[in-house]
Amino acid sequence: MKRSRCLSALLTGAVLLGVLAMPAAAADYDTTLDGLSRLQTLAQTYISENASDSDPIEMTLSYTRTGVYNTDIWTITAGARDPGFESYVSTQDASLTALQETGVVETPVGSVDFAHLLASMNLVYRGLPISGSWGGDCMELAKQYAGQASDADGYTSLMTGCFDSADSMFGGDDLRADMDAIVIGARLTVDSSISDTIGSYYSAINDHDRAYQFIALSFGNVDTSNTQAFRQEVYETLTQDTGMQLLLYLNGMMDSESWTVSQDYQAPLQAACNVLADYLAQAVGGEKVQSDSGTLMKTMAAQALSDALSAMGDQQAADAVLSADQDTSSSSSSSASSDVSSVLSGAATSIQTGFNLQVFETVLLVIGAAAVMLLLISIVMLVRRR
Q: Which of 16, 20, 125, 274 has the most CB atoms in a 10 Å sphere around its CB?
């Protein structure tokens, strides 16, 4: 997929999907949790005073999303921030704006990129967990190393140790945020306290349990001691996820005709999944993970994704999605909820009715040309006056 540079910059910016900016600044753990508690209280009050049917969890989490976590694709999938609520917060407790600049936070079990954590939790809560967390980070790691090896084994060797590297696009702070977002986000309900849920999690978690719970929710019942099988399970979970397919497409990493990962990115993406699988297996000591829930956190709403691609003007890709879904439906079960399907359907509707990409690009060109013309006219008038 490499679509136009304007389209790529507009929709993916730094990833939804990813996802994945460097932390803005360090923040205190207790102060951050206290701020989230006060922010959610304000959200509940604002909703009550305005007789709104908004979700206080979504309103709270979306308020914290800024910069790369507030691009158009994030808005479509994670939900738009409420301008009225932002004004309300600024008048009621202006100090809470600091939550929009939260970076790395030192939790009781290690440093975590909290901006990434909260944004990913937003997507997990809405039923799109993979693209905004570990899947998006695997994609960024694959892009970072693309072209530097000839096969997946070579890429895996190059990527080994990425979680301990300050230069990695998938570092330790991101990894912990990805796992924590899945586990914490899965616990949230409309009546939950975000700060209490986060605090309860970090007060009791350790590296083993963090990885175990993440594996159980993301991959189900797996034997992590079977290295090759577990690596393949991670890769297939990523590439079969609807949200990830859209993210890969927007980043030029999907073949529109066959609706498979582009050949140039198959090996590096497999390798990124390999290093993640190997880390997780080591973290749980090669255990056989048993999932308490029969529902994996995957999205397989093929029709909704097809509609979104069609709305973007790529009918070939839209048709390929449905064809690929028919080929795999007999061998893989769908776990998408109606909520997930509605999110993707809503994304397609938003693109169709409120955000025509081709028209937008044309408008930008027209505006640019008009600005240049006005500048020339102004210069000519100034010269004539002189």
A: 16
Looking at the DSSP bridge assignments, the partners of residue 222 are 289
- Spatial neighbors of 191 by CB under 8 A, at least 6 apart, are none
Q: Locate 241 and state its tokens.
A: 């996820």
**Single-letter amino acid, residue 136:** G
Side-chain half-sphere CA neighbours of 354 within 13 A? 10
Q: How confident is the model over 176-191, as pLDDT tens digits? A: 999 999 999 999 988 9
Q: Give SS3 for 247.
A: helix
Q: Which two tokens stand for residue 89?
A: 């917060």
Q: CA-CA distance, 193 to 44, in Å (whole number)?
A: 11
With a threshold of 0.90, does the pTM exceed it? no
In contact, 178 and 133? CB cutoff 8 Å: yes
Q: What is the pLDDT of residues 318-376, one digit of tens each?
A: 788 778 777 665 444 334 444 444 544 444 444 333 334 443 344 344 445 545 455 55
48-71 pLDDT, tens digit each: 999 989 999 999 999 999 998 998
Match 């709104």 to its residue by tokens: 52
Residues 6+ apart with CB under 8 A from 74: 16, 65, 68, 119
Q: How far apart are CA 354 and CA 321, in angstroms?
A: 23
Residue 46: Cβ-neighbour burial (10 angstroms; 0-12, 13-18, 19+)? buried
Any idea which residue has 């990813």 for tokens? 18
The Cα 234–Cα 216 span in angstroms is 12
* More confident: 241 or 160: 160
- Tell whether omega for the bond before 286 is within 30 degrees of 0, i.e. cis: no
Q: What Cα–Cα distance (Å) separates residue 372 from each residue in 53, 385, 386?
A: 46, 20, 21
